[in-house]
Amino acid sequence: MIQAALIGAGSRGMFAYASYALNRPDEIQFVAVAEPNEERRALFAKLHNIPPERQFSSWQGLLSQPQLCEALLICTQDSQHYEPTMAALDKGYQILLEKPMSPHPRESLEMAEKAESLGRLLTICHGMRYSTYYSTLKQLMDQQIIGRTMSIQWTENVGFWHQAHSFVRGNWRNSKESSPMILQKSCHDMDMLQWLVGGECVQVSSFGSLTHFTEANAPEGSTVRCTDGCKVEHECLYSALKLYYHDKDEWPAKVVALEPNREARLKALKEGPYGRCVYHCDNDVVDHQVANLLFDNEVTVAFTMTAFTNEINRTFKIMGTTGEIRGNHKRNEIEIHHFSGKRQVITPERVAGGHDGADTLIMRDFIKQVNRRSTGRTSAMVSAKSHLIAFAVEHSRVTGKTVVLEDYINGLKS
């Protein structure tokens, strides 16, 4: 069994990853926590029987102590990853870091380089690599079941209400406070595409904008908050009362208030960010974006990220010299259409846990890495490279220029 500490007891840290210890206490035990929110810190400490002297209100407090344990999970907000990670690497911790590594490309590189130089684990939570669904897809592509891969159409269907929750009202709404949309939501996809293609991305181009979730599109009669007597709340697709208050007792409603009662939830909607009208927020991240990627093995990728779907799902078509693979993650099906006429449908095994078991599997793999001092399915440097693809895509969107990755990376180092 390994011992671990958690920095950042938010939704991902507390429920997605650390909850693994409650189900597998023989494998991992949490012995310390750092979290500025007193309510969350107390709840986490209670769940994991952490004594008061091991509860800290800041990451600085935890990392000022002699090394408390072997492993450390860092699940703070995006802009709060770099400093605790660099300090924890110096302390000797083996680290599991929530994605993205940092909202700044140079910091992402520096973190990876430091982990490599010190010989420490720095595993980034690219959960899709651990999903049984995408692991199966990777095996099929490595077997060249459709011949040589030539082109890929890949769509991230964010979902209209998920966009409103996370990227209009939520923590990742404003790129200055968190990250650009392509990094926060789609660094998974950039990592996945890099992994599946098996090559280095050499050029990117991108277009996209924030078009719908703006004050200019606010319906007549709308108010700053859904609880302020909005005249169109009953008809609004994005009503906070519908999404978080009425007969909702699980995610995303539990993000609004830790206490599972309507009184606490209504108070949070009246005072906190999730009660705001989606047309009257301080969001600036895009609600739709496309990107073209060229790899050094001549594979081309057309990537689409959009809020304007019913699905919250990834769909794709991978085209090869002898057939194509079509996928719909939500249906857990991988279809192989051979040009000969043969058709196969594969249904990967499912694992219990968030993100179709990926949250469980990444924790399981991290524990093995700590025990064996081995690298898992990805390294910090590989993750940093996929982040740089996302940064380059955003640079292209903002400048309107095609970006050559080598030039972009050299520019960061100069």
Automatic annotation (TrEMBL):
Protein known as: Gfo/Idh/MocA family oxidoreductase
Source species: Paenibacillus cremeus
Gene3D superfamilies listed in its UniProt record: Dihydrodipicolinate Reductase, domain 2 (3.30.360.10), NAD(P)-binding Rossmann-like Domain (3.40.50.720)
Family: Belongs to the Gfo/Idh/MocA family.
Highest taxon of the lineage: Bacteria
Domain Gfo/Idh/MocA-like oxidoreductase N-terminal as annotated: residue spans: 3-124
Residue ranges of domain Gfo/Idh/MocA-like oxidoreductase C-terminal in the record: 138-381
A Pfam family reported for this protein in Swiss-Prot or TrEMBL: GFO_IDH_MocA
GO molecular function: nucleotide binding
